[in-house]
Every structure is written in structure tokens, then in C-alpha cells.
Design goal:
Layout lengths: L2 E5 L4 H12 L3 E6 L18 E5 L5 H8 L4 E4 L8 H4 L1 H22 L4 E7 L23 H19 L3 E7 L1 E3 L7 H11 L3 E4 L6 E2 L1 E3 H16 L5 E6 L5 E2 H11 L6 E4 L21 H4 L9 H15 L2
Parallel strand pairs: 1-2, 1-4, 2-3, 4-5, 5-6, 6-11, 7-10, 8-13
Antiparallel strand pairs: 9-12
């Protein structure tokens, strides 16, 4: 890969990916507007000659043109990841996901140096899949959130540019990723609530939402394994699911957090949710990705969903002030 651009590289997954790539000797440039990411996530590399940070926005084409110079591979992680915001302001997902991706692809087309786009998509593109675990060739893809729809649109743009403009596109559909530096999601949300009131924990939905969770180290291993596998081929487009081999309910996650925080007599208060016990509109009630396609190439997760939740929780607690 050699010279690499990471959009959203100061964020949760992006900063972990940056750490691994620089440690492996690659030259990394990060483009991040810091709306979600934090410079403290990447400050350890500030004096490294193989590292460049640029504060910029994918909605500004001049920022992209400057950042992309000399990069051969682009890891596109920048996005607005909040599914819930789509219910009140769908414009955010259109601009931060679709428009941003289009601008990046246009810059790649015009620059001609970057040849490969690695795009982190999401399990939400499948919508309410009738087949579980859900394989990459499942159809039809009917997302139920504007976030999922915007990511599916980004996939379509990316694959079309690969075929039309002689690029290569690797699409990675991620399950729920947990671990250090995560600033949104069920674990930070529950910890914040329990610190505010250790006697009661509000849980959105009916608690039976059942999903796959993957620890960040497994996620980065999978991203790099899939990328290196893809680069050895001459395929225009490849799609891989990235997740764990099992599921865990929201109620069980709450129980694990209470155990790890060593709190007793916590009352769980379920909101009941919407549309059959979902936490919010667009929330997938039952999600489990099939990872057979990627595991056949030699990768497999080290942790189950429960182990990932427990490890992420204990790490978060130990690092909290």
C-alpha cells in the first residue's frame, strides 16, 4: 500500500487503523474535519516523518485535492455514524456520507494516482434481512434508515467509479465495533447513564435487540487482511462482511456493564421502543452478518460478541476519569 490517505483518520476506527499502518512502516496522511475525531487520538504520531495530519472537510474539494496528492490507496472512513440523526435531520447523512464520498471519488478520478478505495460500509445496508447470518450476496438490499440508505448509495457510487474510471474498490460492511476511543454507541451511553444514576439504567427499546459486536483489534485485523487479500487480485470490486461469529442482546450488554462496573441493585428501565421494540426508528432489531467469505481467506475474530463487550467495557472504565 505504501502511501495511504485515511479520511476520518482521527476517529475511533480511523485512529486505530492509523496506528497499525504507521507501525507497519506505511506513509499515512489523515484528512479529518474533527467533527467526530479528536487530535488526541493520533497525537503520538505528530513528529513521525511518515505521518501527516490535515484538518479538512470532504465537502470542500480543495481540501481533498491537497490531501490526496501522492496517495496510492484511500481508506474512506469519514462519515456521520449516528443512525438516529436521520429521523430529525436526514440532510446530514446526505451531505456527510453521499456528497462527501462523491467528492472523494471525483478527486481520485481527476488525480489518477490513487488506484484503490477501501470503503467502510455498514451492516445497515441489508435492512431487515430475512436470512441470518446474512451473506454478502443477500438481496434485495432495503435499508430502513437514512444512514443505511446513504451508505448503500456510497457503495453504488464507489463500484460505478471503479468500473468506469479504472479504479479498484473494496467494500467492507461492518457490524457494531467496540473498544477504546469509541465515543458513541451502547457502551459509552450505558456507562454515562450509570455514572449519572447507578440505581437505574434506561435501555432504549425492549432489550431484545440482538446484534453482532466486534472488538476493535479484530476489526483492524480484518480490514488489513481483507485489503491485502484484495490487492493481490486484479478484481475491480470486492465486498466482505466484517463481524463476529455470534450475537448478543442489549439486555445482556447491560448486565455485563453492571458486572464490570461492580454496581449492585440496578433497575433496568426499558422504554419499550418503537416499531416492535426497536431503540429508535431505523434500528435493526436482529443483525448477524455471515463472515464465511472472509474467514475462508484466513482471517477469524479472536473474540465473541460477549467477550468484545466485556473487554471494551473494562477498558473504557479503566480509562475513564
Amino acid at each position: 500500500m505504501n502511501s495511504i490517505l485515511i479520511t476520518g483518520g482521527a476517529g475511533f476506527i480511523g485512529s486505530h487503523l492509523t496506528n497499525r499502518l504507521i507501525s507497519e512502516g506505511h506513509k499515512v496522511t489523515i484528512l479529518d474535519n474533527l467533527s467526530v475525531g479528536k487530535t488526541e487520538n493520533i497525537k503520538q504520531w505528530s513528529n513521525n516523518p511518515n505521518f501527516t495530519f490535515m484538518k479538512g472537510d470532504l465537502k470542500n474539494t480543495k481540501d481533498i485535492i491537497k490531501a490526496i496528492q501522492g496517495s496510492q490507496t484511500v481508506f474512506h472512513l469519514a462519515a456521520n455514524p449516528e443512525v438516529q440523526v436521520g429521523e430529525t435531520d436526514p440532510h446530514v447523512h446526505f451531505q456527510e456520507n453521499l456528497v462527501a464520498t462523491f467528492n472523494l471519488l471525483e478527486a481520485m478520478r481527476k488525480n489518477k494516482t490513487p488506484k484503490t478505495m477501501v470503503f467502510t460500509s455498514t451492516s445497515t445496508v441489508y435492512g431487515e434481512a430475512a436470512t441470518l447470518p446474512t451473506p454478502e450476496d443477500y438481496a434485495p438490499l432495503i435499508p430502513i434508515s437514512t444512514y443505511g440508505a446513504s451508505k448503500l448509495g456510497c457503495e453504488a457510487l464507489t463500484t460505478s467509479y471503479a468500473h468506469t474510471f479504472n479504479l479498484h474498490a473494496l467494500i467492507l460492511r461492518l457490524a457494531n465495533i467496540v473498544g477504546p476511543k469509541a465515543n458513541h454507541g451502547v457502551i459509552p451511553d450505558f456507562i454515562k447513564k450509570l455514572k449519572t444514576n447507578p440505581n437505574r439504567l434506561e435501555i432504549l427499546g425492549d432489550g431484545n435487540q440482538n446484534k453482532s459486536y466486534l472488538y476493535i483489534d479484530d476489526c483492524i485485523d480484518a480490514i488489513l487482511h481483507a485489503t491485502k487479500t484484495f490487492l493481490k487480485t486484479n478484481r475491480k470490486v470486492e465486498i466482505y462482511n466484517i463481524g463476529s461469529s455470534d450475537q448478543i442482546t442489549v439486555k445482556r450488554i447491560a448486565e455485563i456493564l453492571v458486572e464490570e462496573m461492580n454496581i449492585r441493585n440496578v433497575k433496568f428501565s426499558f422504554t419499550g421502543g418503537v416499531n416492535g421494540g426497536r431503540g429508535w426508528k431505523g434500528d435493526i432489531k436482529n443483525m448477524h452478518l455471515s463472515i464465511k467469505k472472509l474467514t475462508k481467506t484466513g482471517w477469524k475474530p479472536k473474540y465473541t460478541s460477549e467477550q468484545a463487550i466485556r473487554l471494551a467495557t473494562s477498558t473504557e472504565i479503566s480509562q475513564s476519569p
